[in-house]
Structure formats: C-alpha cells, structure tokens
Amino acid sequence: MNVPAALECTDKFGPLATFDKHYGAATPATNVASRSISGTAPSDKITCLRSGLGRPPHPAALETGDTLIPVPKGNILTSIPATYNRAHHAFAVFVACATLVVITAGALVTSNDAGLSVPDWPTSFGYLVKAPHFVGGVRYEWSHRMVAGTLVSLTLAIAIFTLWVEKRRWLRWLAVAAFGTVIAQATLGGMTVLFFQPPWLSTAHATVAQTFFCIAVAIALFTGRKWVEEVPRVELDSRRPTLFTLTLLSIFVLYVQLILGGMFRHHGMSWWPHVLNALIVSFVLAWTAIRAISVYSNINAVRQPAIVMLALLIAQLCLGFTAFLTRVAWGRNAVQPELPMVASTVAHVAVGALLLATTVVLAIQVWRHVPAALAERVPQPQRDVSAA
Fold first, then answer.
1. Which residues are within 8 A (CB) of 339 and not within 5 positions of it... i.e. 6 or more apart?
2. What pTM value is reported for the model?
3. Collapsing DSSP states into helix, strand and coil, what is residue 370?
4. Phi and psi dihedrals of 158, rounded to 5?
5. Which long-range contacts (CB under 8 A, 24 or more apart) does 142-145 make?
6. Which secondary-structure segment (H or E) carries 11?
7. SS3 label, residue 192
8. Are the beta carbons of 306 and 289 closer than 8 angstroms?
9. Residue pLDDT, tens place only, 11-42
C-alpha cells in the first residue's frame, strides 16, 4: 500500500500524534498532549487522517479494492491551555448546590399551593427584603424569593469570576449565558405572580429553572481538576445509534417529561400524559445507561455518570409512584396538601432535576470520550491482471 512519509492522527480535540511510514512508535504532536485511541494498532489500518489541517480528504468514488475504516466525526472543541483553579471550581460547585436548593424551595411552594401567598412582585407586601408575618403559605413563597434572589447574586459572582480567571472563551460565554438564564428565570417567576399563575407560564418557569441547574452543573464540571488536567481516553463509537445520539435523546424525553409534569402540577392537563411518557423515559434512559456501562466500562468518565443516572432513574420512578398515590389516588379530595403528598412531590422534583443534570453530564462526557465513527476510504493497490 502506498503510505505517505508521515500520517497525523487526529481526534475531536486536534492532532494526537505523528506515525512514521512503517507505523512505528508515535511521536506526540507539538504542544498537544497525546491521547489514547482504541483500535489504532497497525493491523487495524490506523484511524488517522492525512497530514494537513486534520480534515478528511474530499469524498471520492468507491473503487474496487478500497477499504472503509472509521474516523471520528468532526465535533471540534479547540484545545486551549487551561489551569485548574481550586477556588473557581469550589465556587462553581457551591452555585450548583445552591441552585438545587432553590429548585427544592420552588417545589415546596407549588406542593403547598402557596404560589400567590405573596400577591405582589418584585416587592413582597411592598418591601424588598423585610420579612412579613409567616402565615399560611407566605413562609414558603417569601423564602423561595429570598433564596432565588441570593442565587442571582451568586450567578453574577461566578460569571465575573469566570471572566476574570478563565482562558477558555467558550466557558466564559457559558458563564455569561448562565447569568442571562437566571435573569430570565427570575422574570418568569415574577410573571407567574403578576398573571396569576397560568399553567404554561408556571411550567416555563420550572423548565428554565432546571435548564439553569444543568448549566451550573456543566460549569462545575468544566472547571474541575479532572476535566482540566487529565488526558481523556478516547474510543470510537461505530454502533448505530451512537451513544451520543442516545444521550441527546435521553435529554429530549426528560424535557418532555418535565413539561408534562409541570403542566399537571399547575393544573394545565391531566396526569396520564406524564405517566405515559414516564414509560418512554424509562426505556430510553435504561437503554442509554446499559449501553454506556456495558460497552465503555473502562472509561470512568462515562461509566460513573451512567451508573448514577440509572440509580436516579429507579429512585425517580419510585418517587413518582409514591407522589401519584399520595396526590392523585389518596389525596384528591384533601382540603389542603398533606405532609406525605408534599414530601413525595418535592423529592420527586428534586431527584428529577438531578436526573436531568446527570444525563447532561453523561452527554458531555460521551461527546468528549466516545466520538462517533464515520466510514473513510483507504485506497488499496490495484492488482496487475495482465501479469497473472
């Protein structure tokens, strides 16, 4: 086979290493940490691209004797030198945890039917910070507003912190997007009060809240020591559908479930669409988790969130069944929300948020460690029929 003097092996993060003509020892590419890719032995014809910009050659007609080999899809995240900042990461983790507290507080408001206990916004009974008399559902609504306002300040702080210390431009933009999302979330929360909680608006408020939680968790992940300093282990995914496709599908069905659940909780639709979609969610997430655990068990960054996702899915199903019994089957005619109803529903919302965020983390790690493989043509030497 005609082989150029050198081949440059690439992955989605850039050049990996240069191999000599006889596929001898690899020399790591200049200024780029070498990364391992399974299936790059000489017998596997090496999934490398010709030297240049790291892009595959222009497609050509398939000729007799050509061989198809997998190469990574071109999901590019530019490799920029980054330094682990312990304080930055710790603060990002704190903001993510604070977001979960705010989501839980919001679930307490809805579960106790306390959404309109404080009738004005942005003030509370005419004051910005003065605590009112905690009568009825006021304690839940006012407390939710206070922790939400604190979260806005924390998000502004993490955005400024990120802009100050972070070199990765995309992460700086993500921090800015986080602040924009929390402002949108606060605005939607105020509009639910001013417009007397229409179901679609309350559901949008809940959906954006969990979206912001996912962004906060992603920032915590991207600022972590493992993400910044570890050399990622990369394996090509030649299965169809790819694991990355399954993670995206998992996120999609979870968002559908979140919207259906929000509409039910805010009296915008019946319970059965939420329960029916729960079966779809269970199938898709179980499929995704089992694929990740069984095929990529040697990649900790993929295996661990897949195990957590599967465990949270089981817990969420149990909590969903409990919430259905306490709220629909047994508590339908309750004069006011009872403790078992409130506890099961709040736990269901909180675990649902954790499940969505874990699925997003899994999608990110799969995108980083398990790029999809494409078929690439390698011309084979033509046999001289006349010589035979």
1. none
2. 0.80
3. coil
4. -70, -30
5. 142/117, 142/118, 143/105, 144/102, 144/105, 144/106, 144/108, 144/109, 145/118, 145/189
6. strand 6-11
7. helix
8. yes
9. 444 444 333 333 333 334 333 333 444 444 33
